[in-house]
Model the fold of this input.
Amino acid sequence: MRRGSSCLALVLLAAVALCALAPLMLRGWVRQRQKQQIYRSVTDTPAMPVAVVFGAGYWPSGRPSDALADRMETAIELYQAGKVNKLLLTGDNRFEDYNEPAVMAEYALTRSVPAEDLVLDYAGRRTYDSCYRAGAIFGVEQATLVTQAFHLPRALYTCQRLGLNAVGVVADRHAYRQAPWFSFRELLALVRAWLDLNLTQPLPVLGDPIPVDWSNRAGATQGSGRAGAAQP
Done:
């Protein structure tokens, strides 16, 4: 009886260890799979029609978080270098008093990115939704993803599994105080992404397709204006 109990305990211990290791193994596999599509500088990043910039929160004052500001700076640099024609700014706007895309657009406008070259996606509530809607709503086929190094492997994996030809550029311009939390949260988010892409396949908020000519740009020197907006 004791021998049987010992065997059962070992099986349960092995199962727990496997469950604990599985997310780490998944992260290693995704990183290895996507590393060839990740670029560390704007100069080395290949030209694409559009940069997809993921929301990353902002303060009540309207000031972007450090992570979001770094993403915007990198995207603007891509635009100014002629590496992309337009910026697709995708973030959360499910609450009336919280509007990530609008904050991102305002940031770009103050840096003289023409409003005509900004496309806002107000229903990018999470990475899966942003990648799904980029193709289904905005007709994106090729893109450069702009986000931090910890997030890029998952973002690339998600977009590519959803049919987008994507590369990514690292937007890390600071050392982030919350880096350990970001890393832990990313591990859990990657597990959810794998489940979404391979098992559950949920539908995000959708709507009618919004045609955008990603092959052309208004230019890099026009003044201000209001960005073209796409409601969910």
